[in-house]
Amino acid sequence: MKIDQLHPQLRKAYRWIPAIPFHSRIFLALVKLLSLIPRRTKPVPGVTIVEHKLGTARVRLYRPEGEHAGAALLWIHGGGYIIGSPSMNDKECARYAVELNIVVVSVGYRLAPGYRFPCAIDDCFEAWQWLQDNAGVLGVCCDRIAISGQSAGGGLAAALAQRVYDHGGVQPVGQALIYPMIDDRTAAHKTLDAVGHKLWSNRNNRGAWSHYLGRAPGASALPPYAAPARREDLAGLPPAWVGVGDIDLFYQENAVYAARLNEAGVSCELVVVPGAPHGFEVFAADAPVSRDFMASNYRFLRRVLQL
After folding, report:
1. Which of 138, 231, 228 has its CA nearest to residue 175?
2. pLDDT in tens, the chain (307 residues)
3. Can you point out the beta strands (E) in the chain?
4. Prior bond of 118 cis (ω within 30°)
5. 36 found inside a domain
6. Residue 258 is part of which domain span?
7. Helix-helix angle 288-304:90-100, to 10 degrees
């Protein structure tokens, strides 16, 4: 993918980002080795950050100072189901907490290939139940909780919405999916390899899905929640916001999922940013196109959380 295909406001940020081999086991091993190095939590003005160990999951809790609005966001980090941690989104989660005046709970889930499906979604469901059980202590209304995530985290948020719906009980008021990784069948289309998508290529995608599923992507059938786009009946799920760039590898699968949600009677707002690759609102956070994208995300959350 040539740099002139990117939105003009995003070209500078992506010009020097190399093709990162996330699909390589050697690279993964190095990343996970580096992740073992202890890191001190940097203070964020106006927010307290604490972690809680659950059963197999852990949660990172962000609370604004003073009295908050009584609502919460369950956040799930990205990383292709194979890398990442809650602390990588400290800046984003703290901003949600301060600007929306809500409690934010970020999920630390087990990663593939060491822990394959369904470990990650099991951990996210455990975090959802923990948040429901501790809502009173946190000053949160059980029926004013939304779920959200980026990339693989967006995929897990979509899967979690499906699982919570099937489980019954209190439901999330909305799902905000930022370029979610929801369909393994994209990775099976090797013709996409030649495109060379910025930051997250289809070779990375195929490797990550293979690690997560424990099999090659694109099989005729998968277990429920493994790839949320595979679910046949989407009726009854919470209102959704889906945001993606039109040159992101996940653009097509995201657009199709948003359309299917609307067809099933689920209100879904699809926000498409021209010339925006994967991760653009992180790597070019100050670009007007990124600010507009996140402003739309915030409007959705304010509406569903009744802020």
Report:
1. 228
2. 888 899 999 999 998 887 777 766 777 777 666 665 656 667 778 899 999 999 999 999 999 999 999 999 999 999 999 999 999 999 999 999 999 999 999 999 999 999 999 999 999 999 999 999 999 999 999 999 999 999 999 999 999 999 999 999 999 999 999 999 999 999 999 999 999 899 999 999 999 999 999 999 999 999 999 999 999 999 999 999 999 999 999 999 999 999 999 999 999 999 999 999 999 999 999 999 999 999 999 999 999 999 9
3. 47-53, 58-64, 72-76, 103-108, 145-150, 175-178, 240-245, 268-273
4. yes
5. no
6. 52-304
7. 50
Q: What six digits make up the tokens of 196?
A: 């060379």
Q: How many domains does the chain have?
A: 1
Query: Residue 76 — φ and ψ, nearest 5°?
Result: -130, 120
Cβ–Cβ under 8 Å, residues 221 and 24: no
For residue 25, being part of any structural domain is answered with no
Q: Is residue 148 part of a domain?
A: yes
> Could you give the count of Cα atoms lying within 13 Å of 246 in the half-sphere of its Cβ?
9
CA distance 219 to 196: 24
What is the set of active-site residues?
Answer: 151, 248, 278
DSSP string, 43-63: PBTTEEEEEEE-SS-EEEEEE
**H helix intervals, 36-111:** 90-100
Residue 46, in any domain of the structure: no
Q: Which residue has the tokens 């739309």?
A: 296
Q: Phi-psi region for residue 79, left (φ > 0), alpha (ψ -120 to 50) or beta?
A: left
What's the pTM? 0.95
